[in-house]
Structure formats: structure tokens, C-alpha cells
Amino acid sequence: MEKANVKSNEIGRRLVKGPRQSARNQAATGDKYATGYQKIQTSTNPARKKEGRHPNKQAMLNILQLNICGLKNKKIELAKVMTSNNIHIAVLQESLHKTTNVHLTGYTAYPCTCENCRGIITYIRNDLIADCEHQTQTDDTDIQKATIWYGEQKYTIYNIYSPPTSICQIDSLHETMYNRTIIAGDFNGHSPQWGYTDTNGTGKYLEELHGSTNLVITQTPTSTPTLLHRAHNTLSRPDLTIVSSDIEPCCTVQVMPDIGSDHKPILTTIQTRHDRAPQQRIARWNFQKANWKGFRVETEQLLSKINLNEIKDVDNLEQKFSSIILTASKHHIPRGNINKYKPFWNKDINRVVTERKEARNKAETEPTRNNKTAYNRATARAKLVIGSAKREKWHETCATLDLRKDGRRAWKILENLSGKKHKTNPKPMTDCKTKEQQSEKLNKHFANINKSRTDKLKDRALMKELKMREKNEKEIKLNLIDENVTKQTDLYELKRTAERTIDSYPQDWIHIYTDGSAFKATVNAGYGVLMCFPDGSSKELYSACGETCSNYEAELKGIQAALLTLNETFQRNPSLATHTVLFTDSKAALESLETTQNSSETLDILLEIKSILNKHPITLVCQWIPSHINLPGNEKADRLAKKGAMQEQPLVKTTYQTAKRIIRQNFKEEWMNQWARGTTGRSVYKYQNTVKLHDPIYLLQRKEQCAIFRLRTQHIPLNFHLNRFNAEHTPLCPLCDDSLETVEHTLFQCPNLNQQRQHFLPMRPDLQTALYSTSAQLQRTAAFFFMALGKRAQAQRLLD
């Protein structure tokens, strides 16, 4: 019956697919129908092999899992295993990584950093796009979730360690169907399904997971045990590999020899669906080992044979010259590939590791006390030899390092030791929402991995040329025609210099004035633009910028609107394209256009400027002018900005800087209201009812600042103030003994201080002129008070 069914199925397939297929292809088709996965066969036709230099090889994803029982003394063997087996991702448990350096060359380490860390760590090869995150758990199970992209497919790998005393519950597994998922780790789960005689809580959970989902436990009672329990000399399988059913048919699990841990590593190999051609390594010329004397002799001989009279075409001459250079180079300059990275290894390490493997195999097959002791000794001997070999290699490296000529090598060693240039695998572009962000991220990644020094030099030269060209065509001026004149200059001189600056630009240029306005500098903003053309015509622009928009942003939007209108005007009528000057009273906006770290707002302005300058051979100048000094163009733009602020405000996103400014302003306003309505500090509020950012007290020394501040608040150790805390303390002045010793009495009224008062205080002193005036006067007031304290102390001693 079975043969008949197979034959009928073959006839049905033959009717659909046409001619008879070979048995090999029929088996492949049957596999596809049975498992939903078709293994790709490599053609054995020799004619097809000759078509390409290298036949395509099917790609394999190699995953290593291991409870390493401490990473520190096993890094060399781990690196050897990962390199020789082409491991893409390694999941380790109980690594004790907090006490050791976790770096492995060629891999990005993701150690667990949670508070309840069980020492799990995931290594992902640097050439894979991947990400790794910690999974929060309600129990003691430690879990990491790694997502990698390999062979145009997305794989999810879980690294799990469950302590023997806890029951494993993977909180993040809620589905019943999983695709390309691998769960590997030390579960410490017991179940007869993988060879235990008993069942614990973790084993029951894994059995339920196996029965209710498409996840398959690859270990069976006949699988090779991974743990040799040294105390009881027993073998068990706490390390499990669980895969989803879609990749189970193309997945092989192999237990590897130990690397010094009680657990053996498990290598999981997944055959991917796509063919991948092997990478061709680029051969490079080794100029340091070249025979330059022979190269010179051969090139001279070959060049002497060329008859220049017979060659009239320059291209033929160039080809002949290039062939001579290449011919001589092949004979005298060696060429080859740079050796791939190989972890440190030598014959002694190989010998003791082999002895340890043999001792473990003997202890597993014959679990006697002598074999157990021999295995422990072999493990200790391998640890000792590896440690001494590492020290000897380091001493040899330092001894052969000549700093007079090996400076580059020394710096490379220091950089490797510091970890500054350790490469990491690229992260997926999940945070890039637009194509522009994706392109920017790809460009940055390519620039980091690109090793072409020639291209970098060309890029730098081109960037320098573009910057020089842009600087010549676009000019930003932050000062007036007289750089010594600033906003702190006399108002008349400031206005006269600003008018001279505006008049310095020819009348046949386009003059543009921009301004921004916002209520309380943060809300209901608007911009205004006045464009004056050489023919006497003008154009006015104004618009609202948003309910929550700062003055600075409104200024930038006004500049952008002016440039956009200018560009459109030039496109409609190219004859109007001429040199342009843009006047603005926002120095901060112009400074932002000069910085190298541009925001999104300034970047749009720079792109608009670049568009104008690329299309039209003109000069564009951005000139700062002061505000509110009755400059006609600036005043007109200011009125237009206020008109724009009165328009209906659009709903726009608030920037971080604006939100921060609004919060700061609200807090300041609330504090000012509390300061005005309060009942304390009235002696200061009478003379300073607002915050003074440039209070002259800030220019004094610490001792002088304390004295002036205490005099202002009248919280100072004078008798009248001390009497408030101790009624028995006299409030009278110790110098005159007939008046209360208050701040006003000490500064202005005490007759025994008249001589010092005439020298240090103003002609008609009061609290305003003595405590709230210039820094020089505050210094003199502080000096007067210190002298008064000295005389007061002398008088107090006489009274005592």
C-alpha cells in the first residue's frame, strides 16, 4: 500500500510538473512538502562549476551556548573555539563578568547589568546587525533577548539561566507560534524527556511549553550529557536548546569538548535558506618588503625599449607605461592578504588542553576516584600553563617593543588595552523613522568602516574647497562697520554707526529686513519681513509661528521665509537675481548659522542659501544690526512681526529649548509673585523688587559679599539684631551708648564713625547709595563696616 501511494503521488506530481525529475530532486521536493522548508542542493555538474570562480556556499548560522563557570581563566580557550568554529553568537551563563574584562576581539559583548544578575553574557559578531536587551522577570531567572539579522532573515535568540532552587517561568513567551526562535541556556530543569529520572518545577514548565507551542526541545535521553558533577561524579543535561519548528529540520546540535568548565559547550548550527558566495579577500601590495633596486633596474630596461616616435596616441602610451609598472611590480613587490585574526595559542596550551579533554572523557566513562583526581589535576595544570603562557607572551611583546621606531605599534597596543577603539556590531535602524534618517545612519556607518585613506583625503580636500567657496559667496557679519561699537555704546553713536553700516551696501543690492516677536519671548510668536528691491518696489511678509514659540525660533522662521521668497522670485524672473544683504537684529540666529553643529531650523536655512547660491552667481550677506534705535527698515519689520503674532496661531510642536524656557519663565514669574506678596525680606524688597542678574555684589570677594548681603537683610551681628534672640543682650551701640545699634545707625548716624564715614561713604549716604550702587561703592561700604566692627570690638572689651 505504501509503495502504491508513493507511486500515485509521483504520477500526480509528474502530471503537474511535466517530465520526470531525478530521485534527488524528488527527495528535495518531498522534504519541502513535509517540513515547509527546502534544502538548497549544490549542483554537481562540472560544467556549472566552471561558470564562476567560486561556487556559492550555503550559509550557516552558528550559535554557541555554555555555562562557563567563570570567564576570567577561560577567555583564551573561548576565543579559540569561537574563532575556529566561526561562531556568530555565543550565549554564556555564570560568567562572573563583573570581576573581569569581557572584551573578545571581533565580538560585541552584552553583559547583564541587572541587580539580580546571574552572570549571563551574550557575544555577537561585529559584522552582524543585531541588538540585545535584558528581559525583566518576576522570578530569579536571568534572561537576555538578542535579535540578529543574518541571511536576510531575522532570528531571535534567548540567553537563559535559571538557578537550581527556582522554577523557570519565561514571562515574555505568550504566543503559540514562533518563527526563527532559539532559546538556549542552563535551565536546571529535570524531566525524563531529556534523560532525568525525576521531574522538577522547571521541567514541568518546559514540558508544557514544548506541548502547547511550536517550540521543540532538541535534547533527548540519548543526547550527550553536558554537565560532569564533580562532587557526585554524575552526568546530566541541564543545558538545553529549544528551537521553533520552522528551523528544527535544518538545525543540528552538537556537544563539543570542554574548555575547563564543568559544562560542555553546545554548538547549534542552522542552515539558512539563501546561497552566499564566499567573500574574496583583496590582495594588497607589501611595499615594506619590496626590492626597490630590482624594480628600478627592470623599469628602466623596459622603458628604454619604448620608441616615442612610433606612439602618437596618449592613451596607448599611458597603457604601455602602466603595463611596465605592473610587470615590474609583480616581479619585485610581494602581494598578498593580511592574515585574519587568530587568538593567542601555542603548543604547550594545546598539549595541556588535550590532556584535560582525555582526562574528562576517562572520568565520564569510568567515574572512579582516581580518574576524578586526575581530571582535577589536568584542569589545574591547564589553568597554570595558560596563565604563564599569557605572561610570557606579554613580556616578549614589551621586550621587543622599540619606542624609537615602533611608536605606532605602541599606541595601537595602548588603544587596545584601553578599549577606546573596540568595534561594535551595527544596530538595527528601528529608531530611524524617515528615509533621510536611514540614509544618514548608513553614511555614518560606512564612514566608520571605510578604510580608504585616499578617499578620505579627497573628501577632506573637497569639503575644504566647498567651505571656502561657500564662505566667499555667503558672508555672515556679527559686527557693525566699526567693530568697537556695540549695544553698550552711546545710543547716538550706536545709531550713527548702524546707519553707516546699512549705507555701506550699494543701492543696487536687494535689502531685506527680518524680525521676530513673541509675547513674554515664548508664546504667540510671529515674524515679519521687509524686502526692498533696487527698482524701488518692496514686499512685506508676516505670519504667525505658533502658540508656543520663542523669539529665537521666530527670528529663524523669518529668515527662512525671506530666503524662500527670494529664491522663488529669482526662479520666476532670473533677471532680478542680484547681490543681496539680509539685516536682522538677532545675533544669536546668525551665530547659529556659523556653528558646525546645526539644528533642524538652521539646517533648512543653510540648504535654502545653498540652493540660491548654486543657481545664481550672486553674493549673499547676513548682517547684524541693533534693535529699537529707530532704524526705518528694522522698525518696519518689527511692526510686521507684531502683526504676524496677532494672526491665528498654528499648532506646532514645541522644541525642547522653548519648553525649557517656558518652564523656567513660569517658575520665575511664580517666585516674583511670591516675593511681591510676601511678608519677609521687606528691607531688601524696598530697594530691589526684581531679580538683578548683573547685581554688582557678584563682582566682590566672598568676604565682602557676605558683609553687604547681611547689611541688606539686616541679619548681622549688631546689638539690636542680637537682642531679638536674647532679651538680656543690650540693644545699644557700644560706641555711643545712647542709641540702638541698627544698620542705619552704624552706617549713617554713629558720631564716633564720622571720620571713617566721610572717607568711605557717599556725600549724603543712604541705604540705596551705600548698599545697592556700583561695585566700587560696595567695596568701600564693606571696608567701612569692617573698620566699624574693629572699633566696636575695642569698645566692647572696655565695657566688659
UniProtKB/TrEMBL annotation:
Pfam families named among the record's database cross-references: Exo_endo_phos_2, RNase_H, zf-RVT
Domain RNase H type-1 per the UniProt entry, residue ranges: 506-646
Biased composition (Basic and acidic residues): 1-13
GO MF entry, a single one: nucleic acid binding
InterPro entries per the UniProt record, alphabetical: Endo/exonu/phosph_ase_sf, Endo/exonuclease/phosphatase, RdDP_mobile_element, RNaseH-like_sf, RNaseH_domain, RNaseH_sf, RVT-Znf
Ranges for region Disordered: 1-54
Domain of life the protein comes from: Eukaryota
PANTHER family listed in its UniProt record: ENDO/EXONUCLEASE/PHOSPHATASE DOMAIN-CONTAINING PROTEIN, ENDONUCLEASE_EXONUCLEASE_PHOSPHATASE DOMAIN-CONTAINING PROTEIN
Protein name: RNase H type-1 domain-containing protein
Biological source species: Elysia chlorotica
